[in-house]
Amino acid sequence: MNKKIIQITFFSLAVIFLLLMVEMFVPGVGAKLFKFLGPVVLFAEWGLFALLGAILLFLTIKNKVKEPLRKFLLLTGVSAAGFVIFVLLHNLTSGLLSALFNKEIEEPVFFILATIVCPIGFLVGAIRSAIIFFKKDAK
After folding, report:
1. Contact (CB, 8 A) for 77 and 118
2. Which of 57, 86, 127, 137 is the Cys-Cys partner for 77 at CB 3.0 to 4.6 Å?
3. CB neighbours of 119 closer than 8 A, spacing ≥ 6?
4. How many whole angstroms separate alpha carbon 57 and alpha carbon 61?
5. What is the largest CA-CA distance in the chain?
6. In whole angstroms, what is the distance from residue 98 CA to residue 18 CA?
7. CA 39 to CA 55: how far, in whole Å?
8. Are 53 and 81 in contact (CB under 8 A)?
9. What is the rounded distance in angstroms from the CA atom of residue 34 to the CA atom of residue 40?
10. Cα(29)–Cα(13) distance, integer angstroms
């Protein structure tokens, strides 16, 4: 049963990720959804994405998943939760520095972590975890 819960959490996280990518990169989709559903629903998706990442981390550690699946599930969960955390830290840091120095200041470290490192980590972890899940189900 624990394996099923981990799989459901993982695949739910993957679906939310795909939905978020469509909203961000398909022209007009994000704007129309924002206009139709409002900001609360769209921001709730990001919160759900981070929450599912944290749940995946917790379940992977608690259930002592065996290697190599463990490291890829951990990478997926950390990247999902980290993405939202680093976006918030980037915005807070940039806003605070801009307010303190009265000019527009961009903070690059959290920005690079949020926009490059976490998405790549998520994709690597998710693709490899999915391959391992499907190989084990095929046996």
Report:
1. no
2. 57
3. 79, 83
4. 6
5. 62
6. 33
7. 24
8. yes
9. 9
10. 20
CA 63-121-70 angle, 5° bins = 20
Q: What is the pLDDT of residues 43-93, one digit of tens each?
A: 888 899 999 999 999 999 999 888 899 999 999 999 999 999 999 999 999
Q: For 69, phi and psi rounded to 5 degrees?
A: -60, -35
The C-alpha atoms of residue 81 and residue 93 are separated, in whole angstroms, by: 18
| d(C-alpha 46, C-alpha 117), whole Å | 17
- Residue 125 in contact with residue 76, Cβ under 8 Å? yes
Nearest-10 crossing angle of helices 2-25, 118-138: 140
CB atoms under 10 Å from CB of 93, counted, come to 16
Whole-angstrom Cα distance, residue 136 to residue 127? Answer: 14
Nearest residue to 3 (alpha-carbon basis) of 79, 76, 70, 75 = 70
Nearest to 125 by CA among 63, 83, 64: 83
Q: What is the pLDDT of residues 12-41, one digit of tens each?
A: 999 999 988 888 888 787 777 777 777 787
Name the residue with tokens 């695949």. Answer: 11
